[in-house]
């Protein structure tokens, strides 16, 4: 291969590069480069500045490697000649800076991966530690700009976590909430919340503070690659200069001893320097299996806060907000229907809104009727809502009275619990095909005569007390909406 000229080799490289990036980027970053020489399969190119070299290395390393492999073969190498301006006279002095010849990961080693090549993008941090001594202003925080506090609806389920997160966003590193450990089930808003902190810090402090969001999976992969390429110390160096380090889904560290050890050292260094550490996990620190005790105890140094499944009112408020963010207006009945049927997490609520949005725009529908919503979302609702379950009725009734659902299943004889229990039994008879015996079993194993007594008590009270009648009718209507 090296019997061609450097010009010809670089020309071939440019042809390939041109097909893989936008014309604007090609023009800005590649056209000004001059080929200098080609010796023993090492192509030297001249770039206008040190910064230029760093930029190419940071953003186009993978693409340049693959391109070189295509043009010069797998052992093709690239060397940069950086033009250094001398300040005392107008002469220029050329200095060569070697492109680090890291081995490519196996799947890219063939030099034939151009089709799948994508440029550096958030969510896919390409070795952010590639340049030793990287300036903080150049660190891509990898934050999603739509994950902000303004869009994070507050409810009982997240109040503590949200307010602590806001305090940290305003003054990172200076509170006792360090580390800040958020945990909770899937789709409950951990990523949104921890990224909101990062975005708040960026908003308040601009580039003064280096913020980095990374999933623990990416952290692990990068660390493994760093070890493979003898760049572990650069990896550590990079992480030690971060001011606000946000690591998502830390449970993935489970069983990865080397990564845990590395993270332990980074954690200590940052914590000692008063840098803020924010972590998320699907469970509480002590419940993560196969994590070193010394890390677990550090995770608990600051503040741990959990995110609960949102209660009905919060689900409703989230839906209202998501609908308006998406430019779709939904009636109270439709919002109520979704809030009652999508209970397990916020991601599902969002999914429901998006499905309705897609339906409305494809069908050119201006207003979504409850019946329509029910039809469109039918597949997404796990249980068939045409027959509401006894548990759901218990939920509706307890929501209404503001009591814990478990209470109606227990033996408690407190007046308000007894009343809620009797109404729930009455409505269970109205809305389900269940026998009196089955209904009784759902209410803490009571027998059928207790259920008969409850039903007749409710019917009697409805005839004698207007307030009682109204309550039962309201609940009846709510359940009816859910079974539309
Ligand atoms: N309180 C909230 N207000 C508004 N949107 C929310 C709220 N909680 C979660 N969301 C939205 O729900 C979706 C899922 O949230 P997120 O990805 O943060 O969950 P997660 O807990 O990190 O889930 P996983 O553990 O599966 O990664 C996101 O689009 C997020 O914006």
UniProtKB/TrEMBL annotation:
Residues 1-91 are annotated as: Domain I, interacts with DnaA modulators. It is found in: Cytoplasm. Its main location: cytoplasm. ATP binds at residues 187, 189-191. One of its GO terms (biological process) is regulation of DNA replication. The keyword DNA-binding applies. InterPro entries: AAA+_ATPase, Chromosome_initiator_DnaA, Chromosome_initiator_DnaA-like, Chromosome_initiator_DnaA_CS, DnaA_C, DnaA_dom, DnaA_N_dom, DnaA_N_sf. Residues 389-458 form the Chromosomal replication initiator DnaA C-terminal domain. The keyword Nucleotide-binding applies. Keywords: ATP-binding, Cytoplasm, DNA replication, DNA-binding, Lipid-binding, Nucleotide-binding. It comes from the Bacteria. Residues 176-307 form the AAA+ ATPase domain. GO terms for molecular function: ATP binding; DNA replication origin binding; lipid binding. Residues 89-115 are annotated as: Disordered. Domain I is involved in oligomerization and binding regulators, domain II is flexibile and of varying length in different bacteria, domain III forms the AAA+ region, while domain IV binds dsDNA. NCBIfam families: DnaA (TIGR00362). Oligomerizes as a right-handed, spiral filament on DNA at oriC. Plays an essential role in the initiation and regulation of chromosomal replication. ATP-DnaA binds to the origin of replication (oriC) to initiate formation of the DNA replication initiation complex once per cell cycle. Binds the DnaA box (a 9 base pair repeat at the origin) and separates the double-stranded (ds)DNA. Forms a right-handed helical filament on oriC DNA; dsDNA binds to the exterior of the filament while single-stranded (ss)DNA is stabiized in the filament's interior. Belongs to the DnaA family. This is Chromosomal replication initiator protein DnaA. It comes from Fodinibius salipaludis.
């Amino acid at each position: 291969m090296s019997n061609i000229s450097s010009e010809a080799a670089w020309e071939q490289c440019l042809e390939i590069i041109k097909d893989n990036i936008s014309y604007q980027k090609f023009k800005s970053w590649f056209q000004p480069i001059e080929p200098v020489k080609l010796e023993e399969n090492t192509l030297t190119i001249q770039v206008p500045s040190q910064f230029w070299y760093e930029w190419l290395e940071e953003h186009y390393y993978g693409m340049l490697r693959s391109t070189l492999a295509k043009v010069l073969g797998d052992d093709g190498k690239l060397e940069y000649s950086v033009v250094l301006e001398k300040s005392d006279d107008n002469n220029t002095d050329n200095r060569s800076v070697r492109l680090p010849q890291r081995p490519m990961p196996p799947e890219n080693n063939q030099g034939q991966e151009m089709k799948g090549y994508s440029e550096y993008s958030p969510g896919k941090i390409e070795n952010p530690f590639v340049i030793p001594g990287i300036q903080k202003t150049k660190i891509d925080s990898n934050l999603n700009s739509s994950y902000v506090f303004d869009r994070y609806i507050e409810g009982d389920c997240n109040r503590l976590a949200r307010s602590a997160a806001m305090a940290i966003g305003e003054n990172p590193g200076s509170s006792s909430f360090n580390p800040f450990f958020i945990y909770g089930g899937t789709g409950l808003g951990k990523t949104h919340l921890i990224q909101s902190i990062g975005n708040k810090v960026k908003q308040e402090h601009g580039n003064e503070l280096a913020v980095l969001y990374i999933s623990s999976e990416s952290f692990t992969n990068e660390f493994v690659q760093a070890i493979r390429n003898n760049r572990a110390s650069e990896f550590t160096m990079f992480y030690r200069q971060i001011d606000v380090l946000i690591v998502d889904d830390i449970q993935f560290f489970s069983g990865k001893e080397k990564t845990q050890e590395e993270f332990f050292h980074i954690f200590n260094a940052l914590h000692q320097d008063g840098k803020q550490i924010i972590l998320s996990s699907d469970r509480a620190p002590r419940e993560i299996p196969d994590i070193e005790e010394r890390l677990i105890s550090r995770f608990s140094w600051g503040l741990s806060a959990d995110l609960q499944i949102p209660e009905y009112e919060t689900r409703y408020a989230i839906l209202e907000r998501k609908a308006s963010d998406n430019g779709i207006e939904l009636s109270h009945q439709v919002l109520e229907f979704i809030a009652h049927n999508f209970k397990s997490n916020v991601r599902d609520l969002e999914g429901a809104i998006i499905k309705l949005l897609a339906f409305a725009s494809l069908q050119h529908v201006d207003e979504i009727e409850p019946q329509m919503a029910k039809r469109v979302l039918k597949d997404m609702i796990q249980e068939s809502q045409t027959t509401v379950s006894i548990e759901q009725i218990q939920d509706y009734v307890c929501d209404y009275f503001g009591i814990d659902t478990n209470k109606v299943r227990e033996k408690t004889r407190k007046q308000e619990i007894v009343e809620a229990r009797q109404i729930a039994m009455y409505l269970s008879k109205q809305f389900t095909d269940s026998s009196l015996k089955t209904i009784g079993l759902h209410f803490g194993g009571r027998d059928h005569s207790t259920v008969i007594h409850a039903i007749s008590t409710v019917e009697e009270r409805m005839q004698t007390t207007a307030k009682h009648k109204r309550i039962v009718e309201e609940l009846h209507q709510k359940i009816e909406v859910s079974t539309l």
